[in-house]
Amino acid sequence: MRRDLEMLGFPAANWPAETTGSDGFPITDVVVVGAGMNGIAAAAALIFKGVRNVRILERNPAGREGPWLTFARMDTLRSPKILPGPALGIPSLTFRAWYEAGFGREAWEALYKIPNAVWARYLGWLQRVLNLPVEHETIVREIAPSAGGLEVRIRTSQGQETLFARRAVLATGRGGAGGDRLPDFVDPALWPDRAAHTNEAIDFEYLRGKSIGILGGGASAWDNAATALEQGAARVDMYVRRSILPQINKGRGSASPGYFYGWSALDDADRWSLFVYLNDAQAPPPHETVRRAMQQDGFNIHLGRPAEAATRQGEKVVVRIHGEEAPQEHDFLIVGTGFNVDAGAIPELGAWSSSVARWRDRYAPPDELQRSDLGDFPYLGSGFELTERHPGQDPDLSRIHLVNHGAALSHGAIASDIPGVNVAAERLSTAVVASLFREDLQVIRRSLEEFDEPELEGTPFFVR
Ligand SMILES: Cc1cc2nc3c(=O)[nH]c(=O)nc-3n(C[C@H](O)[C@H](O)[C@H](O)COP(=O)(O)OP(=O)(O)OC[C@H]3O[C@@H](n4cnc5c(N)ncnc54)[C@H](O)[C@@H]3O)c2cc1C
């Protein structure tokens, strides 16, 4: 791996101008928020290109980045094992190279799909072997504009601190562009002892012997049903709005270089129409997860029975189903309704988030393609940069790049799932390089003029 990097000349020497803040300390060129798959790939791609003044800030301890060891409750990744992972085109950085080196070729041949914990170890290895400057247990609380740059307010075990950066990359994961989706009809007073979202930590030991209601029929709802029953829940009832589950994974059908490279070049109408098509189709739960849940006694699914209220009644959760007189009673409710995307609710931006342009600010779809929730997706620029809702009012927003699922409408699914991660990192790093180069042009030009290494010394043509 080291030889591969050496042969490719990675990482290049640092070239951006060194800038200092009013406190005299160097300003960080790029702060990457999140050390999951997209944060790792983005930071590595920047460092390879000689943008080496980078800090990666991650709220979780080392090894606990991303969903893999917490709320991803499937046994294995849903994707096939042959995906290269965030390898940036370098064979020795691929998941397969790492796995074969550690476990042998036979083990690779025998591997069916990648267990979550193995994938998390691979991502941890990438962080270490690429010497990525990850600062764990560091929470980015807020990012705000500051003269000619960004103020990044962080919290660590040492307390609160402010650092200054020229660019920020929000690689904050699936929930990073709007948080968990919680239907209006679910009473928030059910928390914490009577309900949890699938994306939260759940104490399944506490659910032993209990009756669990689950809202939703997507992959995570099934994963949680299976986990609860495997860990001793007495019964699980899944309430699903649809009367048949989605059958085809159109996401897989669109995971090709054409979509990855071509999507962002489409006009707004085509991007919107494609996204509506994919979003309406939804994805089926993986058959492995379905089988895992169905193997358990106590599993019940209620298709075509949409919940319309979930409230607390004494020690119970009462779920009312549309059109049914008698309510359903459970000891605990798990809400498997996915994530929101809302440009106005990017947590790290606080109130500044309301200045981010959304799709509804830039594009009006025809009536049959109106989807109110999709209108809240951020309308990103060609390098994942946020754009201003009111042009001219918040130019510093373009210093912030959003590399998570919130980018899906603007760029396709390249910052969402594993297959697109390298394309996203390449696009992002190229855009940041170009904008830093433009910003630093005067300094870079001056240092070019001062560059003075004679080539002809020792030949008759040398002139001092
Ligand atoms: C349950 C589940 C299963 C999935 N399975 C698959 C699959 O099989 N195949 C596939 O291709 N895709 C899958 N995905 C989709 C996608 O690959 C994952 O969501 C993946 O984790 C995305 O990587 P990421 O780097 O964007 O986000 P993450 O891996 O979530 O990393 C984001 C990181 O940012 C950190 N962070 C967030 N906010 C802050 C902050 N303010 N300060 C500091 N740190 C912060 C988080 O702690 C986290 O570690 C799955 C997603 C989920 C949720």
At a glance:
The chain has two domains: about 1-175 and about 340-445, FAD/NAD(P)-binding domain; about 190-245 and about 285-335, FAD/NAD(P)-binding domain, CATH 3.50.50.60. It is built from 14 helices and 15 strands. The protein has helices at about 1-10, 35-50, 95-105, 105-110, 115-130, 220-230, 250-255, 255-260, 270-280, 285-295, 360, 410, 420-440, 440-450, and strands at about 30-35, 55, 135, 140-145, 150-155, 160-170, 195, 210-215, 235-240, 300-305, 305-315, 315-320, 330, 330-335, 400.
CATH class of the largest domain: Alpha Beta
Per DSSP, what share of the residues sits in E-state strands of 2 or more residues?
15-25%
What is the molecular shape? globular
Helix count, DSSP H or I runs of 4 or more residues:
14
Q: Quaternary state, please?
A: single chain
Give the tally of β-strands. Answer: 15
Proportion in helices: 25-40%
Fourth-level CATH superfamily of the largest domain: FAD/NAD(P)-binding domain
Q: Which consecutive residue ranges, at least 5 long each, have pLDDT under 50?
A: none
| The number of domains | 2
Which fold name is given in CATH as the topology of the largest domain? FAD/NAD(P)-binding domain
Small ligands present: flavin-adenine dinucleotide
H/E topology pattern: HEHEHHHEEEEEEHEHHHHEEEEEHEHHH
Mean pLDDT: 97
How large, in whole angstroms, is the Cα Rg?
24 Å
Main sheet record:
7 strands, mixed
From the coordinates shown, what is the CATH architecture of the largest domain?
3-Layer(bba) Sandwich
N/C terminus separation: 43 Å
Counting helices, strands and paired strands, the structural category is alpha/beta
Pfam family, one: Pyr_redox_3
InterPro entries: Auxin_biosynth/cation_transpt, FAD/NAD-bd_sf
Keywords: Oxidoreductase
Organism: Microvirga aerilata
